Amino acid sequence: MRSVDYCVIGGGIAGLSAAARLARHGETLVLESEDALGFHASGRSAAFAHFDMDARLVRALTAASLPHLSEPGARRHPALFIALEGQEALLDQLETNYREWAPHVERLTPEEARNWVPVLATSDGAISGALLDRDGRKLDAHALLEGHRRMLNKAGGEVATGARATAIRRDDNRWTLDTPGESFTAKCLVNAAGAWADEIAMLAGVAPIGIRPLRRTVITFDVPEGMDVSDWPFTKTVGPGFYIEPEGRGRLLACPMDEGESTPCDAQAEEEDVALAAWRVEQATTLSIPRLASKWAGLRSFAPDRLPVAGFDPEAPGFFWLAGQGGFGLQTSPAMAMAAEALATGTEWPEELRAVGVEADALSPRRLRA
Ligand SMILES: Cc1cc2nc3c(=O)[nH]c(=O)nc-3n(C[C@H](O)[C@H](O)[C@H](O)COP(=O)(O)OP(=O)(O)OC[C@H]3O[C@@H](n4cnc5c(N)ncnc54)[C@H](O)[C@@H]3O)c2cc1C
Fold first, then answer.
1. Domain ranges of the chain
2. Ligand 1 centroid, distance to 40 Cα (angstroms)
3. What is the whole-number distance in angstroms between the Cα of residue 108 and the centre of ligand 1?
4. Angle CA(256)–CA(257)–CA(262) in degrees, nearest 5?
5. How many CA atoms lie within 13 A of 235 on its CB side?
6. Ligand 1 within 6 A of CB of 337
7. Which residues, other chains included, contact 219 with Cβ-Cβ below 8 Å and sequence gap of 6+?
8. Could you tell me which of 76, 90, 167 has the C-alpha nearest to residue 128?
9. What crossing angle do the helices spanning 333-345 and 13-22 adopt, rounded to 10°?
10. Are 145 and 42 in contact (CB under 8 A)?
11. Is the CB of 58 under 6 A from ligand 1?
């Protein structure tokens, strides 16, 4: 049976980014059920980084991550936050939240917002104001994953795809994991299984912490011929509504920001959510969406307090949680990987996290076991 120091379950952004760092401290192996990395949430994301996040902790993790998000995994792209009728107070709150991390944001009038996104409606339900961040980041999930895989391999670590952990037990102070092909033992098991994080815990005889997968839907569609949307900002309503972002010159991606209950699974777009996405875009813009180019859904997984989790289980030695990255798992992955590295290896807490006011306790699974 092969023996490693760190066995990471999950070949999404959480598992890969942490594994790339852990490999500098000991032999590291990533087990991924699917035949490809990023098959679930990480590969289905809208892949944008911004500060319109409810929790200060998430905004702080984003701030610590941005300096690490550069080409080819990320490029600068503007973000525009629009207030629909009745969302003015939310826009004020967003501006306050945003300025702590990005003091350069600009308040725009509806007319100025329309200079950026000319299809924003002027009629009923039209926008009442907007906030522009010229310094958002368009992310590329596959480039990020590939970068981490290369770093992992360079440090001597490995990824096994098509390797679902089917049984997990604790023997002689080590975790033993069975996959259909091979078994492994590890001194530290990192549970980065996304929507399956609680299932992995239960497989290992560890109490779950309440990770809840919620389905989110995306559609893409072509804009009228001759319209070039490639420079349009990522555009999001500050409250319930939708977001759109360019996918090349003539195509937009849209999401109704839905949260459908789901079990951990290969999530599929439901017709009702697809229709809602198209309807919300049509209501707030002059666009009409007669046909779709594509549609998909993915699972965003949340802890009960909707904050991310990184740390050893208080009752199960060597069982490390790296879960609950909700709708911010890509944009916070550099900071979360730094936190996981420090906590799993017992090394110093990163100054970059301390500088933004993030301490280990805030991420600990202990808070969910009260
Ligand atoms: C529609 C949508 C839009 C989003 N937009 C954004 C955005 O704009 N910005 C942002 O930062 N985030 C966004 N997110 C969130 C982001 O995608 C997630 O937070 C992030 O991908 C979570 O990464 P993960 O590695 O935890 O999960 P996953 O990518 O799901 O990885 C978990 C992996 O564990 C594997 N696994 C499970 N069980 C086992 C087992 N028994 N053995 C081996 N492997 C196993 C799974 O196969 C899976 O590949 C979005 C998500 C969705 C769905």
1. 2-42+141-210+305-369, 78-135+212-302
2. 5
3. 34
4. 110
5. 30
6. no
7. 253, 254, 255, 269, 274, 277, 278, 289, 292, 294, 295
8. 90
9. 50
10. yes
11. no
Q: Is 256 helix (H, G, I), strand (E, B) or coil?
A: coil
CA of 124 to the centre of ligand 1 (A): 37
CATH architecture under which domain 78-135+212-302 falls:
2-Layer Sandwich (3.30)
User: What spacing in Å lies between the alpha carbon of 360 and ligand 1's midpoint?
Assistant: 22
Of 202, 199, 169, which Cα lies nearest the Cα of 186? Answer: 169
Ligand 1 atom nearest to CA at 215: 53
Q: In CATH terms, are 2-42+141-210+305-369 and 78-135+212-302 the same topology? A: no
Token digits for 272?
């009702």
Work out whether the CA dihedral 304, 259, 143, 102 comes out positive or negative: negative
pLDDT tens series, the chain, 370 aa: 999 999 999 999 999 999 999 999 999 999 999 999 999 999 999 999 999 999 999 999 999 999 999 999 999 999 999 999 889 999 999 999 999 999 999 999 999 999 999 999 887 558 999 999 999 999 999 999 999 999 999 999 999 999 999 999 998 899 999 999 999 999 999 999 999 999 999 999 999 999 999 999 999 999 999 999 999 999 999 999 999 999 999 999 999 999 999 999 999 999 999 999 999 999 999 999 999 999 999 999 999 999 999 999 999 999 999 999 999 999 999 999 999 999 999 999 999 999 999 999 999 999 998 6
CB 166 within 8 A of CB 31: no
Instruction: Output the CA torsion 314→315→319→322 (10° steps).
Output: -40
Measure the CA–CA gap between 253 and 291, rounded to whole angstroms. Answer: 13
Rounded CA separation 87/61 (Å): 26
Distance 78 CA to ligand 1 centre (A): 24
Q: Is 298 in the pocket of ligand 1 (CB under 6 A)?
A: yes
| Residue of 217, 300, 320 with the most ligand 1 atoms within 8 Å of its CB, for mutation | 300
Q: For the domain bounded by 2-42+141-210+305-369, which CATH number is listed?
A: 3.50.50.60
What residues does 188 pair with on adjacent strands?
Answer: 6
Question: CB–CB of 242/254 below 8 Å?
Answer: yes
Q: Is the peptide bond before 72 cis (omega within 30 degrees of 0)?
A: yes
